[in-house]
Amino acid sequence: MAERLGNEEIEARLASLNSAGAGWEVRGDRIARSFSFPDFVTAFGFMAEIALVAERMNHHPEWFNVYGTVKVELSTHDAGGITELDFELAEAMNKAAGRHD
Ligand code: H2B
Fold first, then answer.
1. How far apart are CA 66 and CA 75, in angstroms?
2. pLDDT by 10s per residue, the chain, length 101
3. Which of 59, 84, 85 has most ligand 1 atoms within 8 Å of its beta carbon, as the pocket-test mutant?
4. pTM score > 0.85 for this model?
5. Is there an atom of ligand 1 within 6 Å of 59 CB?
6. For residue 29, what is the DSSP state?
């Protein structure tokens, strides 16, 4: 099972996740980001693509969608905090968002 990451490790991975200006932040025991798409169908296309990634990883986002906005929070419940799985899924989201803009 994935291990909870320490604060230094989280900050280092966050910096790399945000190297292209993605805007992820630590919020309590989660990492969070808001994505903005031009409309609902584009946002939903992003979510549909990520749903398949999440199933493959057996690691699932908490997210909230209104029209073109998708607010995401990632944590590893099984580990009680942030693990490398959250950063892996976040990276997949950054890449997918670039294909749905
Ligand atoms: N997703 C996330 N984000 N965190 C988990 O700890 C988690 C999950 N655990 N998806 C998985 C499913 C677990 O609940 C099942 C039973 O494998």
1. 21
2. 899 999 999 999 999 999 999 999 999 999 999 999 999 999 999 999 999 999 999 999 999 999 999 999 999 999 999 999 999 999 999 999 998 87
3. 59
4. yes
5. yes
6. T
3-state secondary structure of 65: strand
| Sign of the dihedral through C-alpha 58, 59, 65, 68 | negative
Asked whether 82 and 76 are in contact (CB, 8 A), the reply is yes
Q: Record the tokens describing residue 87, joined without a space.
A: 């950063």
CA 91 to chain centre: 7
End-to-end CA distance of the chain: 34
Beta bridge partners, 27, equal 30
Q: What is the reported pLDDT for 30?
A: 98
Task: Report the Cα 4 to chain-centroid distance in Å.
Answer: 16
